[in-house]
Design a protein that fits this description.
The structure is a single chain. The chain is built from ten helices and twelve strands. By secondary structure, it is an alpha+beta fold. A hairpin with a 3-residue loop joins strand 9 and strand 10. Helix 9 runs antiparallel to helix 10.
């Protein structure tokens, strides 16, 4: 044996993992100052939020909870059986030691890479994107190594996060469909949907020895055509009737044109905006006076045709079905 062999420890006497990272789930013990032989009677130190797992020739043997353990045959029952050690055995031995972090990993991201199609009670079928966060921890270190990490010396939480996203997205679409919640009301039902998803997802996590601690839906987004339809609906509700809605849109168009003309255009836009405001006020007052003395007149033909054009665009975009478009079209044509 050379001089270096006397300087370094020949056998491992202390086995421990001081985790300085925040994203390591599994770490395989290795002592650079010793060979692979563990001294009989060595100390195994397992800190809080850790478990230590002995593997003998690729098979899981003994599992150790937090505490300090003296490695003798009485404290290694499974390994002693696998190795067929006899009473009084005190020789050095070899075994792979894996530490598994059991702390909670928080703020993990999930999201739909592509829109998912869900059935909606109002829009029939809608493409939706969803995003959120979740928290997990290793509940069964032996199962996690057996079903997921295997003999990898290091496993990071990012690797686990990627693996579980697919399960989350597939279950999300199923739960939303069963809940029968319209996409219009989804935002105020995030917590309810998250609570329903958590137990359904747990079955997939349990398979890997994981516990899904928390699950949140943070945001959902709709296709542009649906958002445009909702914007128009909101505008119409704010204005009140079709005539004022057309005037409202005209005023917006004039103001946008004026903004593109610079300072002079701004003055013109201001003037035209004032004129439009006066016209709208006068029109509203006149309509109110007339309605008190005679039946309400039919809608202007040009206004009706403009609304029909908007409905046709929604049908082309797939927001309205053929039947819905036909019913609304008949309703508007009856007003001419």
């Amino acid at each position: 044996m050379g001089l270096f062999g006397f300087v370094k420890n020949e056998f491992i006497e202390v086995i421990e993992w001081t985790d300085s990272s925040t994203d390591t789930v599994v770490w395989k013990f290795a002592d650079p100052n010793a060979d692979d032989n563990i001294k009989y009677g060595a100390k195994l130190v397992v800190r809080e939020s850790q478990v230590a797992i002995f593997m003998n020739e690729g098979r899981i043997a003994d599992v150790y909870e937090p505490g300090t353990h003296t490695l003798i045959t009485q404290n290694m029952p499974i390994l002693t059986t696998l190795q067929s050690w006899k009473y009084g055995f005190e020789s050095p031995f070899k075994v792979d030691v894996y530490f598994v972090s059991t702390r909670q990993f928080t703020n993990l991201k999930w999201g739909t890479m592509n829109p998912i199609i869900i059935r909606d009670p109002e829009f029939k079928q809608v493409r939706v994107r969803a995003f959120g966060v979740f928290s997990l921890r290793v509940a069964d270190g032996g199962r996690f190594i057996k079903q997921y990490s295997g003999t990898n010396p290091v496993v990071k939480i990012g690797d686990v996060e990627d693996q579980l996203r697919t399960a989350i997205v597939s279950k999300f679409s199923d739960v939303v469909a069963k809940s029968n919640v319209s996409v219009l009301d989804m935002a105020r039902n995030y917590k309810e949907l998250g609570d329903k998803l958590l137990p359904d997802l747990q079955s997939d996590f349990t398979e890997y020895g994981l516990e899904l601690v928390k699950f949140y839906i943070e945001n959902t987004s709709l296709p542009p055509e649906v958002e445009q339809f909702l914007d128009k609906t909101t505008q119409m509700n704010m204005v009140g009737d079709m005539a004022r809605f057309q005037q409202f849109q005209t005023g917006i168009s004039i103001e946008k044109a004026a903004e593109n003309e610079g300072a002079a255009g701004n003055m013109m836009g201001f003037g035209l905006g004032s004129i439009m405001s006066n016209q709208m006020a006068a029109s509203t007052a006149a309509a109110t006076t007339a309605s008190a003395n005679q039946p309400a007149p039919k809608e202007d033909k040009a206004q009706i045709m403009g609304l029909l054009k908007d409905l046709a665009e929604l049908k082309t975009a797939g927001v309205l079905t053929e039947e819905e478009f036909a019913a609304k079209k008949a309703e508007l044509l009856a007003k001419i």
